[in-house]
Amino acid sequence: MVKYEDLRKQRLEENKKRMEELNLPLLTQALKNSTSPKTTPMKKTKPRIVGTELVAVRRSPRVAKSPAPEYKEVIHYERVMIPRRLATPTKRDRLFFAYASDEERAASIEKAEKLEASLGSDYPILVRPMLPSHVSGGFWLGLPSNFCRKNLPRRDDTITLIDETGEEWPTVYLAQKCGLSGGWKRFSVDHDLADGDTIVFHLIRPTKFKAYIIRVNNANETVSTEISTSTSSSEAF
Question: pTM of the prediction?
Fold first, then answer.
């Protein structure tokens, strides 16, 4: 062990002498003391302008040869508003909603068609059976497009429904959708319309319907009395 330590110290001394002969310590110290030269920043050069000229705006080849677009006038109609009634319609519970059977629905339509025949052909008539979507939920009454194109206004308007008592119910008619929107819910709820009821719409004026309600529960009753009263009331208009 002592011999190894002696050899190690001897080797260290020899290496130190060799480093001194090569002046390595002095070179190391000189490198530490020297400072790196400062670099000059690069000058910012501006791109050289050769010349300017006006050129046409580039267009897509698909429309370059096409004529300029033409604009047409768009007419915005005034929004149709209907007066609000003080009472608010009650909500109908779908859990207790009564659905009509096919036999009851057919009997109601048959009775409505008999009433339609008694009204004559002086004014347009529309027979509309009630579905669940007409008398609950969204309360939207769609009308046949052919009937609307021939007899109803071509723009949104107010269409008045007149019941058997002569009371008027304003509704909003949407020409593009061919149906009654605002106001129809009030008419449906206040007249307690149900699934399977049938309404005979008698167009006595361009924007006025005389509405005859055929109840699905009373569809099997005789219609002679109702037909006579209906014809007399329609003649009054």
Answer: 0.54
